[in-house]
Design a protein that fits this description.
- There is one protein chain.
- By secondary structure, this protein is mainly beta.
- 0% of the residues lie in helices and 61% in strands.
- The chain has a five-stranded antiparallel β-sheet, with no helix packed on it. A three-stranded antiparallel β-sheet has the order 8-9-10, with no helix packed on it.
- The radius of gyration is 16 Å and the shape is elongated.
- The N and C termini lie far apart (39 Å).
- The mean pLDDT is 93.
Length: 92
Amino acid sequence: MSTAFAACPSAFVYADPDGREKIDHLLWGAFVEVLDQEQGEWLKVKHQGRDRWMRKEDIQEQRLLEVNFVDIGQGDGCFIVTPDDRFILVDA
Protein backbone atom coordinates (compact mmCIF):
# COMPACT_ATOMS: atom_id res chain seq x y z
CA MET A 1 0.00 0.00 0.00
CA SER A 2 1.07 3.56 -0.68
CA THR A 3 -0.35 6.97 0.07
CA ALA A 4 -1.80 9.05 -2.73
CA PHE A 5 -4.13 12.00 -3.20
CA ALA A 6 -7.04 12.94 -5.44
CA ALA A 7 -5.87 14.87 -8.49
CA CYS A 8 -6.95 18.34 -9.60
CA PRO A 9 -9.67 19.55 -9.70
CA SER A 10 -11.59 16.58 -8.33
CA ALA A 11 -11.91 12.82 -8.67
CA PHE A 12 -14.49 10.10 -8.22
CA VAL A 13 -14.34 6.80 -6.36
CA TYR A 14 -16.20 3.91 -7.99
CA ALA A 15 -17.61 0.61 -6.74
CA ASP A 16 -16.07 -1.39 -9.61
CA PRO A 17 -13.52 -0.76 -12.37
CA ASP A 18 -16.30 -0.56 -14.96
CA GLY A 19 -16.95 3.06 -13.92
CA ARG A 20 -20.73 2.79 -13.76
CA GLU A 21 -21.41 3.39 -10.06
CA LYS A 22 -19.87 6.50 -8.48
CA ILE A 23 -19.53 6.08 -4.71
CA ASP A 24 -17.95 9.37 -3.67
CA HIS A 25 -16.69 12.67 -5.07
CA LEU A 26 -13.23 13.62 -3.77
CA LEU A 27 -11.81 17.12 -3.78
CA TRP A 28 -8.26 17.91 -4.87
CA GLY A 29 -5.80 16.56 -2.30
CA ALA A 30 -8.13 14.09 -0.55
CA PHE A 31 -6.18 11.17 0.97
CA VAL A 32 -6.47 7.60 -0.37
CA GLU A 33 -4.38 4.46 0.08
CA VAL A 34 -3.42 2.74 -3.16
CA LEU A 35 -3.68 -1.04 -2.91
CA ASP A 36 -1.51 -3.40 -4.97
CA GLN A 37 -4.13 -4.18 -7.59
CA GLU A 38 -4.80 -2.59 -10.94
CA GLN A 39 -7.01 -3.33 -13.90
CA GLY A 40 -6.24 -1.43 -17.11
CA GLU A 41 -6.63 2.29 -16.36
CA TRP A 42 -8.01 1.58 -12.87
CA LEU A 43 -6.33 1.28 -9.45
CA LYS A 44 -7.85 -0.27 -6.35
CA VAL A 45 -7.80 2.16 -3.42
CA LYS A 46 -8.92 2.20 0.18
CA HIS A 47 -11.13 5.20 0.92
CA GLN A 48 -12.98 5.68 4.21
CA GLY A 49 -12.10 2.13 5.24
CA ARG A 50 -13.51 0.47 2.11
CA ASP A 51 -11.91 -0.94 -1.01
CA ARG A 52 -12.92 1.10 -4.06
CA TRP A 53 -11.63 1.91 -7.56
CA MET A 54 -10.22 5.10 -9.10
CA ARG A 55 -8.88 5.99 -12.53
CA LYS A 56 -5.07 6.25 -12.57
CA GLU A 57 -5.30 9.76 -14.05
CA ASP A 58 -7.34 10.89 -11.01
CA ILE A 59 -4.54 10.11 -8.53
CA GLN A 60 -1.45 12.17 -7.72
CA GLU A 61 1.48 11.39 -5.43
CA GLN A 62 2.17 14.97 -4.31
CA ARG A 63 0.53 16.19 -1.13
CA LEU A 64 -0.93 19.70 -1.03
CA LEU A 65 -0.61 22.38 1.59
CA GLU A 66 -3.47 21.85 4.05
CA VAL A 67 -4.79 24.83 6.03
CA ASN A 68 -7.45 24.37 8.72
CA PHE A 69 -9.00 27.35 10.50
CA VAL A 70 -10.29 26.72 14.01
CA ASP A 71 -12.57 28.87 16.17
CA ILE A 72 -11.06 28.60 19.66
CA GLY A 73 -13.49 30.85 21.53
CA GLN A 74 -11.61 34.06 22.31
CA GLY A 75 -9.85 34.17 18.93
CA ASP A 76 -8.98 32.08 15.94
CA GLY A 77 -6.40 29.41 15.33
CA CYS A 78 -4.87 27.90 12.25
CA PHE A 79 -3.46 24.38 11.91
CA ILE A 80 -1.24 23.93 8.84
CA VAL A 81 0.13 20.69 7.40
CA THR A 82 2.88 21.19 4.82
CA PRO A 83 3.44 18.92 1.80
CA ASP A 84 6.49 17.42 3.57
CA ASP A 85 4.38 16.47 6.64
CA ARG A 86 5.38 19.30 8.98
CA PHE A 87 2.81 20.77 11.35
CA ILE A 88 2.38 24.46 12.17
CA LEU A 89 -0.05 25.77 14.76
CA VAL A 90 -0.89 29.48 14.78
CA ASP A 91 -2.74 30.92 17.78
CA ALA A 92 -4.14 34.39 17.07
